[in-house]
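[Meeting: bench + compute handoff]

Bench side (C.D.) handed over the final construct sequence. Compute side (W.E.) agreed to return the predicted structure before the next meeting so the bench team could plan truncations. Sequence as handed over:
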Amino acid sequence: MPLMSGSLRNGVIAGALTIALYSIVYLIDKSQVFSLLLYWGTVPVTVFFMYRAAVYEVGHSAGSLYWRELIRAPFGVFVVSGLMFWIFYYLLFTFDSEMAALSMARQLEALDVMQEYSGGQLTEAQIVEARREIESSEGRFSLTNLAFSFAKGILGGFLIALIIAIATRGRSDGANQLGRSDA
């Protein structure tokens, strides 16, 4: 099925590039693996390959594409690349025990920043509870964390796929139809 093979191919490329970037950062400075700049900096890579898959499908479709087909290709790329990334991330924590300690330190730093900039919105009890939860987790990244992180990302990935579908719909005759009228 060409649609899925295009999504799979582009998803694997996006996932591999993201993992390569994280691997380079990991080898240079493990603590930077938790950088939000790195995390958000890899989003354009995935979005590029999502768009690439959508444009490919529009260009290679035999006829009209409907919303379902327009969303499927970029969303498939997001799912494949996301699965690859989160499995890689889980494996980092599994095979490098230092990652958990670094993660806990980053979380505690973030809590201190939140406390500083909350303007008194966080009570002392909330801060103590948050600190206790962070310390009790010991910074571990479990399969539950992986599943939850992936699930949260899926929502954002669907929205990005929808935006890409809207951007590419004009390239396909009849693509602005919401469903098949011949069904």
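W.E. noted at the follow-up: Helices lie at 2-28, 36-41, 43-59, 67-95, 98-117, 124-137, 143-168. C.D. will use this when planning the next construct.
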